């Protein structure tokens, strides 16, 4: 009951299918491993960073050509990114910061820091 008003949820969205749950799980996957390219692509623009499809495609091409993961490509200095390079560097720095936090504390602390 909320505020003493009885209610019943019928046919709501499954907890793990909610966007915010998928996003945080993707962040945690990427911080822990980074080899899950799908998870990296999911969070690269969450929250919005102004990273568009063309930039993502350029990163993907670089990753394939250099045989590295998508995240590792984000950590590299890719000349073809132009103005988007600053945005990608910001994302890469954020993941590095989360990884440092993971080493320093607990999963709960990391979760709170990310959210």
In short:
This protein is an all-alpha fold. The protein is 60% helix and 0% strand.
Written description of the protein model:
This protein is an all-alpha fold. Helices cover 60% and strands 0% of the residues. The protein has 6 helices and no strands. The chain has helices spanning 19-32, 37-43, 53-65, 70-75, 84-104, 107-114. The longest helix has 21 residues, at 84-104. The two termini are 27 Å apart.
Biggest sheet layout: none
Low-confidence stretches: none
Computed Rg: 17 Å
Distance between the termini: 27 Å
Q: Tell me the overall shape.
A: globular
From N to C, what is the helix and strand string?
Answer: HHHHHH
Per DSSP E runs of 2 or more residues, the count of β-strands stands at: 0
> Percentage of helical residues?
55-70%
Treating each run of at least 4 consecutive H or I residues as one helix, how many helices?
6
Averaged pLDDT: 91
In what range is the share of β-strand residues? under 5%
- Structural class given helices, strands, pairing? mainly alpha
